[in-house]
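Subject — a protein and its fold
Fields — amino acid sequence, structure tokens
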Amino acid sequence: MEQVTLTPLITPLIKYELRDYTPADARHINELALAAFEQYKCHYDNWEAFSANVAKFSDLAEVAEIVVAEDCAREIIGVVAYVPASIIKAEYFPENTPVIRVLAVSPKARGLGLGKALSNECIRRAIRDGNSRIALHTSTIMEIALPMYLRMGFQWYGDATPLFGVEYSVYAKSLTNATERHTE
């Protein structure tokens, strides 16, 4: 894994490391995912049910490679799941395509490029696995994530099933052109 140093404009220098999930991380990543999605609770028509699903993020370890970001104090400040192409997914995702799932960044670590770094790690794994594209689903309520994905080269693929009253769409990124493999 890579160690990355970010220099934000206002906050002090933040160092973090991306690493693979271990079962000891379960409680921490579940709490982080819930804290990251808390800002959207007014958008979902059944926040209790939605948040109960988000609070089980670690269950994705059964079908996905979970990547965590730790700061220099070993506190987990970000997490994402990379679901390989071989795993059966919802019908609205492109067939035989890996998927980025539940990208979550701690509210105190936002704006530092951590979401992009975690997304790029999933892209790196998709390339490692020989895939020609990668997909994800997101919503327009994700006012930071959606524009970030678009800047990274993801394009609208189709509509997904709404989640608890919130519209979602699928976005995919081609990985076949070597210049597209590395994002800015």
Observations:
- The chain is about 25% helix and 25% strand.
- The longest strand covers residues 76-83.
